[in-house]
Protein backbone atom coordinates (compact mmCIF):
# COMPACT_ATOMS: atom_id res chain seq x y z
CA UNK A 1 0.00 0.00 0.00
CA UNK A 2 1.23 3.49 -0.77
CA UNK A 3 0.01 7.04 -0.33
CA UNK A 4 0.58 9.64 -3.01
CA UNK A 5 1.58 13.07 -1.74
CA UNK A 6 1.58 16.27 -3.69
CA UNK A 7 4.90 18.11 -3.96
CA UNK A 8 4.09 20.45 -1.04
CA UNK A 9 3.21 17.54 1.26
CA UNK A 10 6.29 15.53 0.30
CA UNK A 11 8.59 18.52 0.81
CA UNK A 12 6.93 19.30 4.16
CA UNK A 13 7.56 15.80 5.51
CA UNK A 14 11.11 15.80 4.12
CA UNK A 15 11.91 19.18 5.69
CA UNK A 16 10.27 18.31 9.01
CA UNK A 17 12.38 15.14 9.30
CA UNK A 18 15.48 17.21 8.44
CA UNK A 19 14.56 19.80 11.08
CA UNK A 20 13.97 17.08 13.66
CA UNK A 21 17.37 15.55 12.93
CA UNK A 22 19.35 18.79 13.18
CA UNK A 23 17.43 19.89 16.31
CA UNK A 24 18.37 16.68 18.12
CA UNK A 25 22.02 16.93 17.09
CA UNK A 26 22.27 20.61 18.06
CA UNK A 27 20.76 19.96 21.50
CA UNK A 28 23.12 17.03 22.04
CA UNK A 29 26.13 19.26 21.44
CA UNK A 30 24.76 22.15 23.52
CA UNK A 31 23.96 20.06 26.60
CA UNK A 32 27.35 18.32 26.38
CA UNK A 33 29.33 21.58 26.27
CA UNK A 34 27.19 23.02 29.10
CA UNK A 35 28.47 20.50 31.67
CA UNK A 36 30.83 23.03 33.25
CA UNK A 37 27.98 25.48 33.83
CA UNK A 38 26.44 23.34 36.59
CA UNK A 39 27.72 21.65 39.74
CA UNK A 40 29.03 18.08 39.32
CA UNK A 41 26.04 16.60 41.20
CA UNK A 42 23.69 17.81 38.42
CA UNK A 43 25.78 16.74 35.44
CA UNK A 44 24.24 13.28 35.26
CA UNK A 45 20.95 14.93 34.33
CA UNK A 46 22.65 16.74 31.43
CA UNK A 47 24.36 13.53 30.32
CA UNK A 48 20.95 11.85 30.19
CA UNK A 49 19.56 14.79 28.23
CA UNK A 50 22.41 14.43 25.73
CA UNK A 51 21.75 10.70 25.50
CA UNK A 52 18.06 11.32 24.79
CA UNK A 53 18.69 13.74 21.92
CA UNK A 54 21.57 11.66 20.53
CA UNK A 55 19.41 8.52 20.43
CA UNK A 56 16.57 10.53 18.87
CA UNK A 57 18.98 12.09 16.35
CA UNK A 58 20.18 8.66 15.27
CA UNK A 59 16.62 7.44 14.77
CA UNK A 60 15.65 10.59 12.86
CA UNK A 61 18.56 9.89 10.54
CA UNK A 62 17.14 6.39 9.99
CA UNK A 63 13.59 7.76 9.56
CA UNK A 64 14.89 10.40 7.11
CA UNK A 65 16.61 7.71 5.02
CA UNK A 66 13.62 5.37 5.26
CA UNK A 67 11.31 8.07 3.91
CA UNK A 68 13.57 8.65 0.90
CA UNK A 69 13.97 4.93 0.22
CA UNK A 70 10.21 4.29 0.49
CA UNK A 71 9.41 7.12 -1.94
CA UNK A 72 9.00 6.57 -5.65
CA UNK A 73 8.32 9.99 -7.00
CA UNK A 74 5.61 11.41 -4.74
CA UNK A 75 4.26 7.95 -3.76
CA UNK A 76 5.37 6.63 -0.35
CA UNK A 77 5.19 2.90 0.35
CA UNK A 78 3.63 2.38 3.82
CA UNK A 79 2.70 -1.30 3.42
CA UNK A 80 4.81 -2.47 6.36
CA UNK A 81 6.81 -4.78 4.09
CA UNK A 82 10.53 -4.64 3.31
CA UNK A 83 11.42 -1.38 1.59
CA UNK A 84 8.41 0.49 2.99
CA UNK A 85 8.51 3.47 5.35
CA UNK A 86 9.61 2.12 8.74
CA UNK A 87 7.51 3.58 11.57
CA UNK A 88 9.13 1.15 14.03
CA UNK A 89 12.15 3.47 14.34
CA UNK A 90 9.99 5.86 16.34
CA UNK A 91 8.92 3.20 18.82
CA UNK A 92 12.47 1.95 19.34
CA UNK A 93 13.46 5.57 19.97
CA UNK A 94 10.61 6.16 22.43
CA UNK A 95 11.27 2.88 24.24
CA UNK A 96 14.77 4.13 25.01
CA UNK A 97 14.23 7.87 25.44
CA UNK A 98 10.93 8.20 27.32
CA UNK A 99 12.21 6.39 30.45
CA UNK A 100 15.39 8.52 30.27
CA UNK A 101 13.31 11.71 30.09
CA UNK A 102 11.62 10.79 33.35
CA UNK A 103 14.91 9.85 35.02
CA UNK A 104 16.29 13.27 33.97
CA UNK A 105 13.69 14.97 36.13
CA UNK A 106 14.58 12.88 39.17
CA UNK A 107 18.33 13.35 38.61
CA UNK A 108 18.20 17.15 38.31
CA UNK A 109 16.22 17.50 41.55
CA UNK A 110 18.91 15.57 43.49
CA UNK A 111 16.31 13.94 45.74
CA UNK A 112 17.08 11.73 48.72
CA UNK A 113 18.41 8.36 47.56
CA UNK A 114 15.40 6.34 48.73
CA UNK A 115 12.89 8.79 47.24
CA UNK A 116 14.74 8.87 43.91
CA UNK A 117 14.96 5.07 43.77
CA UNK A 118 11.25 4.74 44.57
CA UNK A 119 10.23 7.15 41.80
CA UNK A 120 12.55 5.64 39.19
CA UNK A 121 11.48 2.04 39.87
CA UNK A 122 7.88 3.08 39.23
CA UNK A 123 8.29 5.55 36.37
CA UNK A 124 10.69 3.58 34.15
CA UNK A 125 8.61 0.36 33.91
CA UNK A 126 5.44 2.41 33.39
CA UNK A 127 7.08 4.37 30.56
CA UNK A 128 8.33 1.18 28.89
CA UNK A 129 4.87 -0.40 29.21
CA UNK A 130 3.21 2.69 27.70
CA UNK A 131 5.40 2.50 24.57
CA UNK A 132 5.31 -1.30 24.26
CA UNK A 133 1.52 -1.39 24.49
CA UNK A 134 1.10 1.36 21.90
CA UNK A 135 3.17 -0.30 19.17
CA UNK A 136 0.83 -3.25 18.34
CA UNK A 137 -1.98 -0.75 17.81
CA UNK A 138 0.19 1.48 15.65
CA UNK A 139 0.98 -1.32 13.18
CA UNK A 140 -2.44 -3.00 13.25
CA UNK A 141 -4.72 -2.69 10.25
CA UNK A 142 -7.75 -3.52 12.38
CA UNK A 143 -9.40 -0.45 13.91
CA UNK A 144 -10.78 -2.27 16.98
CA UNK A 145 -7.40 -3.83 17.73
CA UNK A 146 -5.73 -0.42 17.45
CA UNK A 147 -8.28 1.11 19.83
CA UNK A 148 -7.78 -1.71 22.34
CA UNK A 149 -4.00 -1.30 22.44
CA UNK A 150 -4.39 2.49 22.55
CA UNK A 151 -6.59 2.21 25.66
CA UNK A 152 -4.16 -0.23 27.29
CA UNK A 153 -1.28 2.15 26.57
CA UNK A 154 -3.18 4.97 28.26
CA UNK A 155 -3.25 3.15 31.62
CA UNK A 156 0.51 3.44 32.35
CA UNK A 157 0.40 6.99 30.95
CA UNK A 158 -2.16 7.99 33.58
CA UNK A 159 -0.08 6.30 36.26
CA UNK A 160 2.98 8.32 35.17
CA UNK A 161 0.96 11.52 35.49
CA UNK A 162 -0.12 10.48 38.99
CA UNK A 163 3.49 9.88 40.08
CA UNK A 164 4.72 13.15 38.54
CA UNK A 165 1.99 15.34 39.95
CA UNK A 166 1.24 13.67 43.29
CA UNK A 167 4.33 11.76 44.40
CA UNK A 168 6.94 14.08 42.89
CA UNK A 169 4.96 17.14 43.94
CA UNK A 170 5.61 16.32 47.59
CA UNK A 171 9.35 16.90 47.13
CA UNK A 172 9.10 20.29 45.42
CA UNK A 173 8.50 22.25 48.62
CA UNK A 174 12.14 21.67 49.60
CA UNK A 175 13.55 22.96 46.31
CA UNK A 176 15.22 26.41 45.89
CA UNK A 177 13.13 29.43 44.90
CA UNK A 178 11.94 29.25 41.32
CA UNK A 179 12.76 25.56 40.87
CA UNK A 180 9.33 24.31 41.92
CA UNK A 181 7.66 26.67 39.42
CA UNK A 182 10.02 25.57 36.64
CA UNK A 183 9.41 21.89 37.40
CA UNK A 184 5.68 22.63 37.35
CA UNK A 185 6.05 24.10 33.86
CA UNK A 186 8.20 21.11 32.90
CA UNK A 187 5.40 18.72 33.86
CA UNK A 188 2.89 20.78 31.89
CA UNK A 189 5.23 20.72 28.89
CA UNK A 190 5.37 16.95 29.21
CA UNK A 191 1.57 16.67 29.21
CA UNK A 192 1.20 19.11 26.30
CA UNK A 193 3.78 17.35 24.13
CA UNK A 194 2.75 13.83 25.06
CA UNK A 195 -0.81 14.84 24.23
CA UNK A 196 0.20 15.19 20.58
CA UNK A 197 1.09 11.48 20.35
CA UNK A 198 -2.43 10.13 20.99
CA UNK A 199 -3.82 12.70 18.53
CA UNK A 200 -1.44 11.39 15.86
CA UNK A 201 -2.27 7.82 16.93
CA UNK A 202 -5.99 8.54 16.42
CA UNK A 203 -5.25 9.94 12.94
CA UNK A 204 -3.82 6.53 12.09
CA UNK A 205 -7.16 4.92 12.88
CA UNK A 206 -8.83 6.63 9.95
CA UNK A 207 -8.36 6.19 6.24
CA UNK A 208 -4.71 5.94 5.21
CA UNK A 209 -4.44 8.92 2.87
CA UNK A 210 -1.85 11.59 2.23
CA UNK A 211 -3.31 14.08 4.72
CA UNK A 212 -3.33 11.51 7.54
CA UNK A 213 0.25 10.43 6.76
CA UNK A 214 1.54 14.00 6.70
CA UNK A 215 -0.40 14.91 9.86
CA UNK A 216 1.00 11.93 11.78
CA UNK A 217 4.62 12.50 10.74
CA UNK A 218 4.57 16.26 11.34
CA UNK A 219 2.73 15.82 14.65
CA UNK A 220 5.12 13.16 15.95
CA UNK A 221 8.19 15.19 14.93
CA UNK A 222 7.03 18.45 16.50
CA UNK A 223 6.12 16.59 19.69
CA UNK A 224 9.55 14.91 19.72
CA UNK A 225 11.36 18.25 19.39
CA UNK A 226 9.35 19.76 22.24
CA UNK A 227 9.52 16.67 24.46
CA UNK A 228 13.27 16.14 23.97
CA UNK A 229 14.98 19.40 22.99
CA UNK A 230 12.86 21.93 24.88
CA UNK A 231 12.56 19.50 27.78
CA UNK A 232 16.35 19.05 27.87
CA UNK A 233 16.97 22.81 27.78
CA UNK A 234 14.56 23.21 30.70
CA UNK A 235 16.47 20.52 32.61
CA UNK A 236 19.63 22.57 32.00
CA UNK A 237 17.87 25.69 33.30
CA UNK A 238 16.84 23.87 36.49
CA UNK A 239 20.37 22.52 36.97
CA UNK A 240 21.81 26.03 36.64
CA UNK A 241 19.24 27.50 39.05
CA UNK A 242 20.05 24.87 41.65
CA UNK A 243 23.80 25.26 41.10
CA UNK A 244 23.62 29.04 41.62
CA UNK A 245 21.42 28.58 44.69
CA UNK A 246 24.13 26.32 46.13
CA UNK A 247 26.95 28.82 45.61
CA UNK A 248 28.14 28.41 42.04
CA UNK A 249 29.16 31.83 40.60
CA UNK A 250 26.51 33.34 38.33
CA UNK A 251 29.01 33.97 35.51
CA UNK A 252 29.36 30.22 34.87
**What is the β-strand count?**
3
Order of helices and strands: EHHEEHHHHHH
Oligomer: single chain
Corresponding CATH superfamily: Rhodopsin 7-helix transmembrane proteins
* Regions with little confidence, pLDDT below 50 for 5+ residues: none
Average pLDDT figure: 84
What's the architecture, going by CATH? Up-down Bundle
Please write the CATH class name: Mainly Alpha
Strand share of the residues? under 5%
CATH topology call: Rhopdopsin 7-helix transmembrane proteins
How would you describe the overall organization of this protein?
The protein has 252 residues and is mainly α. It has a single domain, classed as Rhopdopsin 7-helix transmembrane proteins (Up-down Bundle), CATH 1.20.1070. It is 75% helix and 3% strand. It is built from eight helices and three strands, in the order βααββαααααα. Strands 1-3-2 form a three-stranded antiparallel sheet. Strand 2 and strand 3 (75-77) form a beta hairpin. Helix 2 (43-70) packs antiparallel against helix 3 (88-109). The longest helix is centred in the C-terminal third of the chain and has 36 residues, at 210-245. The protein starts with a strand and ends in a 7-residue tail after the last helix. The model has no long low-confidence stretch (mean pLDDT 84).
